[in-house]
Amino acid sequence: VAGDISYAKKNDGDFDEFDLLLGADAFWSWRGLSLYAEYFWGHITYTAGAPKQSFHEQGFNAQAGYLLPIPGRLYRRFEVTTRFEAVAPNQTVPITGPGDPTQARAAYVVGLNYFHRGHNLKLQLNYTHNQQLDTIDASGRLATYHNDSVVLQLTWKLE
Predict the structure, then answer these.
(1) DSSP one-letter code for 142
(2) From edge to edge, which strands make up the β-sheet containing 55-67?
């Protein structure tokens, strides 16, 4: 279990921005099963005269994995995973169109990992279904789009 707090002041010329960010996460594992969850909350404010409105943002993710008990040399080398994540950035301004950085969104991920040498050499295959939670832009147009992905990644950690 962990938590974090950060506070930053940014001078943007004619106005200042203040960022208060809070986060908490937890991890648990037992006999090949692992669970992880994280929550993030932010409060962004501006001084008088700023062309932006103050806002809150938040995000969440949860994931689960299971190391398959395949006998022999493959014992606990394959892991099946699933993950859900959602983020709602600045919700005080309407989005300008599909893919706007302030568009609230969610992702559903399933994957298979192969650990050849633990995390030092691993192969990961993931399918991600992305969903836009803000579906209408400022002009009243549909702001959803297809951007699902399949990612194959090889990680080799040099020591």
Answers:
(1) B
(2) 2-11, 16-30, 33-46, 55-67, 78-88, 105-115, 121-132, 149-156
Phi/psi at 73 (nearest 5 deg)?
-65, -20
Question: Within 10 A of 89 (CB to CB), how many other CB atoms are there?
Answer: 21
Amino acid letter, 78: F
Rounded Cα distance between 17 and 109, Å, is 34
Provide the 10 A C-beta neighbour count for residue 107.
Answer: 17
Q: Output the pTM of the full model.
A: 0.84
Per-residue pLDDT of the chain (159 residues; tens, 9 = 90+): 999 999 999 998 899 999 999 999 999 999 999 999 999 999 999 998 898 889 999 999 999 999 999 999 999 999 999 999 999 998 888 899 998 988 999 999 999 999 999 889 999 999 999 999 999 999 999 999 999 999 999 999 987
* Residue 104, burial from CB neighbour count under 10 angstroms (0-12, 13-18, 19+): buried
